[in-house]
Amino acid sequence: MPGEESSDAQYERLKRQLQDSILTEYPNPDRVGCPGGNVLRGLAARYLDDTIETDPNWQHVTHCSPCYREFLDIRAEMKVSKTANRRAIAAGLAALAIAMVGAAWFVSQRRQPTTPERPQITELVYQPRIVNLEGWSSPRSENGKEPSAPIQLGRGPEELTIRLPFASRPGQYDVQLLKEVDQPLVATSGEAQVIDGSTVLKARVDFSKLGPGRYLLGVRRLPADWTFYPSEIK
Hints:
Elements: H1 7-25, H2 37-45, H3 56-61, H4 65-111, E1 127-132, E2 151-153, E3 157-163, E4 171-180, E5 183-195, E6 198-206, E7 213-220, E8 227-233
Parallel strand pairs: 1-3, 2-8
Antiparallel strand pairs: 3-6, 4-5, 4-7, 5-6, 7-8
């Protein structure tokens, strides 16, 4: 029949009538026996099934207009909060999806670059080399010894362990590699220490920009002057 009330509408109408009845027919201005806000909040969070009917606190709420009004307010507040949480979660998931799409695009662009990538700067690897100056014989030596062969160096980064001449004092030393005096091509410094009776100086140098050929390796301990040793890069 036209205008006939649906079952859902009828249920809502009866629910409102019951709520209005509880809100008006059980005044309790002195709030006698009221369980308090925490209990009301716990009831509001429960599912309203048959099990709640045996709860004495629920019996009080449905026969106390002030408590029932507070209960309904808490339920409405929880409903609004739950809706806001759902919206926040939905917005968060949407933002995450957008971020994942952007990240996938970025990765695909890196895998298929439109322009040549610049070569990455790699860390220098220093190759160890021992330079033994102990008992080294100078070409100008007058003691009859054959002059020592030129000190062999590599064309690249090297970590030199220089065994200084006998009786050399420990301390700060300067090291140079040059073609001509007072025109160093590579320079560094380091602290020499006495190890097992030998004075040892460790220094890192990079010969990668130098071509093969003969050089001079200069070593000095301030304030002493330089001592030069013939050297060769192959």
